[in-house]
Amino acid sequence: MEGVGMTVFSDIYRGTSVLLTGHTGFKGTWLALWLKTLGADVTGVSLEPNSKPSHWDLLGLDMIDERIDIRNAEKIKEAINIAKPKIVFHLAAQPLVRHSYSDPLGTWSTNVMGTANLLEACRQQPSVRAVIIVTTDKCYENKEWSWGYRETDRLGGHDPYSASKASAELAVASYRKAFFNTPDSPLLASVRAGNVIGGGDWSEDRLIPDMVRAIKDNKTLEIRSPNATRPWQHVLESLSGYLLLGQNLLQGKQDFGQAWNFGPPRDGNRSVVDVLSSMKKEWPVLDWKITRSPQPHEANLLYLDSSKAHQYLGWEPVWSIDESITATAAWYRTLLEQNKVISGAQLADYIKKAQSAGVKWSIN
Question: Are 331 and 199 in contact (CB under 8 A)?
């Protein structure tokens, strides 16, 4: 990957000190890989990877790797003071809806107080010029309506995960207004993406990892809500939005310190069974059945409106949903059948596709 796409994002990350929380998680590992490819000086703050295998271990990235619980305010402050980052990407979280039902207090403390701890540490470190807090598309009060949620729509949440992420958004808005409110303050933004897919995700109770485990164990996948519709997108799509937003914040564009959606186009909103049907074309051994056991509440319909990111950031998706599914299946099949990790190659392919399509972040 070295040397591929090095001029993307105006080369602003080269030599830049970056602190990345949650770098051992699914999104975090891909963002760490991309930042290292861009020449950034990255410090990661996270818990141990929670799966075997783990994408973090498979990648073997050469970067500072700190094991810190973001609920530990003193340790977070110490890490930020040592790293002296110019930009902070906050991805560390309890990210699972169903787990939030079994551990609501852990979910609330991680997603709300962990975020507040990070914001407070950034407020006190002069090196920090930009902070991006990653929440979720589920932070909106879900009305089950058929049009996309915009950044100005009401926040809320039924389950502890969604509600805690909405609360994290309120903490961000509070810090922006109360503390990051002078011309020389760091610029603070939050980002909300759709259901991300891609290689390297081994989380429990997520569709693609559950599917891969079923295939590996020669079992039939059990699905809960076949008609539930989500805004599916490859993990690199959301990360390109985060990095593009970070570029603008590092360039001092104060108007960009706000909330942003990064979701797929309308055809990326597909039901669970539609995604599995597309995946089966790539991996014919896949089979599934619908579980009849009682399940905790999850939203059935959820769309994102990313018009603001399109208009003001010039952000746009690169891979279609079908290309994203193909890339995801290829990653897992290559690992299981050939014991090879193709994350770097897929990132290079993604950048090349963006450049050939003239996507803004890839050519400036």
Answer: yes
